[in-house]
Design brief:
Blueprint (H helix, E strand, L loop, with lengths): L1 H15 L8 H42 L24 H5 L25 H5 L5
Length: about 130
């Protein structure tokens, strides 16, 4: 029984030592974008915490003043700074061609005229219809 368990464990242990392929440039760009998004989300969280702490301190000061007690002196801190909106341009996404560049949706040459006109087919062909 122990021999069977040892064989099964050895079989599964071999897969642990398998080597993964190196990440592609696209995978690296996705990881960088995820890291940038996470950093921005953390900055937004810290900003919201700062605003909430300021609001709580103001409420405390107002309630203490309304109760007729001495209001403690506020400690000077830096004002809350909003980190701005999220903007990250992936270098791989920006460098790739749009789908239309493949030519699958458009003819290869530039259009010389609009796709439809009010002119009869005879005028477009350059002669009378027979």
């Amino acid at each position: 029984m122990r021999l069977a368990a040892a064989l099964i464990a050895a079989m599964f242990a071999a897969s642990v030592f398998a080597k993964l392929p190196p990440p592609t440039d696209e995978d690296k760009a996705k990881a960088a974008e995820a890291a940038a998004k996470t950093a921005w989300t953390e900055k937004i969280g810290l900003y919201q915490l700062c605003v909430a702490m300021d609001r709580t301190a103001d409420t405390y000061r107002k309630s203490t003043k309304a109760a007729g007690k001495a209001v403690p002196v506020a400690v000077a801190t830096a004002p809350c700074a909003h980190p701005g909106s999220y903007s990250y341009v992936s270098p791989v996404t920006a460098a790739t061609k749009p789908l239309e560049a493949s030519g699958a949706h458009s003819p290869p040459a530039m259009a010389a005229s609009p796709p439809s006109t009010k002119a009869p087919a005879a005028e477009i062909a350059g002669g009378q219809k027979k």
